[in-house]
Amino acid sequence: MALIDSYGRKINYLRLSVTDRCNFRCIYCMPEGGVDKVDHHDILSYEELMLLARSVVPLGIEKIRVTGGEPLVRNGIVQFLSDLSKIPGLRQLVLTTNGFLLEELALPLREAGVQRLNISLDSLREDRFREITRVGDLRRVMAGINAAEKAGFPIKINAVAMRGINDDEINEFAALTLDKPFAVRFIEYMPTTKEDGWESRSISGEEILARIKGRFSLQPVVRGEMAGPSRDYKINGAAGTIGVITPLSCHFCSECNRIRVTSKGMAKTCLFSDKEVDLKPLLRAVDMEGLQEILRRIVSEKPGKHIIVEQASERKPFSMSRIGG
């Protein structure tokens, strides 16, 4: 069975947020004071999250990415991931994290069945890293990356490129791939919070690649099955790869294969759409048949492309931690 939307896209990827809480306050993701506290009853329980996962995999979802906020701050997350990894038919279980808790959790996560990690890292300089995250400790994150390597994880690093903030580190990030088989991906800065003058921070994927090509020779890399939206390259002779994710300058909507569900049980077919459907009533009624029916309908209504630039004035601002990135 497969979930096919009205544009012929096969939807086989679920981004599942388990919490909107985070131990960082990254400038592009959360307000400095954090997000408003959500009542515990409004957050999906692990039992409800498992019911959702068990409902979508038979429909054709083959990959689940667990996100937050920061997923590792939720108590019981390792056991939940272990249970998730045992769902028949689930081919890929991956996790996005800021890396702060990886030093102690990398090995348990690997043993739980998590196959890959995406680690958010926006600066390689301690003072700047703290400015971007407001509270983060770069040394602890780097220790977490080292622990993840030792645990046997393929390492993927995501860096949001921001002009005037960290764009002078683009080639430093690219150089991380020279000796280690890291996948370093640069993400265009997106106007999720609709702050004034956001355009001044934005750097296109083409400019990022041009800067790297000014120092290194790059060759394109063929994407694998169920790969994400990154356009990937390799520095000649390097152990790892470099990628750019370009939701603004060259959107990848025609290849979008995902839906997402927030920690409050709101299903979204597009990160930049205000439209969402509350799955909590069906989850709390343990109505798997009804849940599968509404998920099919949601997929059938998935938009052909986002319009974040064209309709920026009409779209509601949001905190990325609320949505799951």
Explain the overall architecture.
The chain has a twelve-stranded mixed beta sheet with strand order 9-10-11-8-7-6-5-4-3-12-13-14. The chain has a two-stranded antiparallel ribbon with strand order 1-2. The relative contact order is 0.16. Strand 1 (3-4) and strand 2 form a beta hairpin. The chain has 325 residues and is an alpha/beta fold. The two termini are 27 Å apart. It has helices spanning 46-56, 77-85, 102-112, 126-133, 138-150, 170-175, 205-213, 280-284, 288-300, 320-323; strands at residues 3-4, 10-11, 13-17, 63-67, 92-97, 116-120, 155-161, 183-188, 218-220, 231-235, 241-245, 258-261, 266-268, 277-278. It has a single domain (3-323), classed as Aldolase class I (TIM Barrel). Helix 2 packs parallel to helix 3.
- The CATH class turns out to be Alpha Beta
Radius of gyration: 19 Å
Question: Which sheet architecture does the biggest sheet show?
Answer: 12 strands, mixed
Number of domains: 1
According to CATH, the fold-level topology is TIM Barrel
CATH superfamily: Aldolase class I
Work out the helicity level. Answer: 25-40%
Net shape = globular
| Low-pLDDT ranges | 309-313
Structural class by secondary-structure content: alpha/beta
How many individual β-strands? 14
